[in-house]
Amino acid sequence: MKPCRWFYLSAVLLLMCQTSFSAPGRPQATGKEHAGYRVVHGWPALPEGYILGEVSGVAVDSHNRVFVFHRGSRKYSAEPNLPLIAEPTILCFDGPTGQQIGAFGENQFVVPHGLRIDRDDNLWLTDVGLHQVFKLSHDGKLLMTLGTARTPGQDGTHFDKPTDVAIGADGTIYVSDGYGNNRVARFSPDGMFLGQWGSNKGDKRGEFNLPHSISIDAEGRVYVADRENRRVQVFDHDGKFLSAWKSDELGKPFAVTIGPDGFAYVVDGSDQKPAPPDHGGVLRLDLTGKVLDRWSRHGNYDGQIYVGHDLAVGKDGAVYVGDIWGRRVQKFVKE
Q1: Residue 280 binned pLDDT confidence (cut-offs 50, 70, 90)
Q2: Sorting pLDDT into bands at 50, 70 and 90, what band is 78?
Q3: Radius of gyration from C-alpha coordinates of the chain
Q4: Which of 297, 242, 288 has its CA nearest to residue 269?
Q5: Which pLDDT value is given to residue 278?
Q6: How would DSSP label each residue in 181-208?
Q7: 3-state DSSP percent of the chain in helix, strand and coil, to 5
Q8: Which of 19, 121, 131, 247 gets the highest tally of CB atoms within 10 A of its CB?
């Protein structure tokens, strides 16, 4: 494996140091905020003075390296024709230690969103500003592009603000297409359009109201975080509806991922103000949708989650949560 390119701070990034959101500087929450799991204080070990942007994506590769997709100095915007983000938008960390290994992705993305890593340690990323999906090697080489730059649409060559990607065991590509469209689009491993399901905004079976995250289990079942409908929908690999998970306990799922342990993990990114005491947090579920564990809650203290946007699970069971408004990624491990 080629190592990630070494990261250096630019003058642009140093301007971001005016307001600190790094986990070590936050007050630590009191009380039992994460029953069953605890936050690893001080993870990751960011360079002194460096502040993450809005963390939209997080994923773990086969070597327990954690990749973080963030927006640098840019805040989310739906404005067209925004310039590319000049600073690196993909950071690479060692999972156990939190030490930064490298970074890349400068002058490549407009509004970073989803991040997944496939079995070959390739990165799959979505950009809701460019309306595109990208496949990169683990060190940043562009391998494939889906969609037409800065041109929204709903067909085999266009997306409208795609949110996430999942890769099946056979290499089939599934895209949750997301803010503008309400569909799941399916592609062959070489990028040929195979079809779609959804497309109409709604709350019936198989319909979506902002499909925000997508994941696949070992049996090929497809799990979609149907965000604004406050549910996770489950389909077979061809898009046949199988079931839906929806409850007060589940909340408003911003992200769903099937961990290496075969369980589903969901981050409840609910952002109501003021937030109820049991609002937000992370859940571990079996594949029938039964909640097995729940920890953390809405908040900006260390160990709490302001607005959880994405999560990933390492082979060692560590859970990494990307916090969009908190501008950070946190690591949780079992007690």
Answers
A1: confident
A2: confident
A3: 18
A4: 297
A5: 63
A6: --EEEEE-TT--EEEEEE-SB-SSTT-B
A7: 5, 40, 55
A8: 131
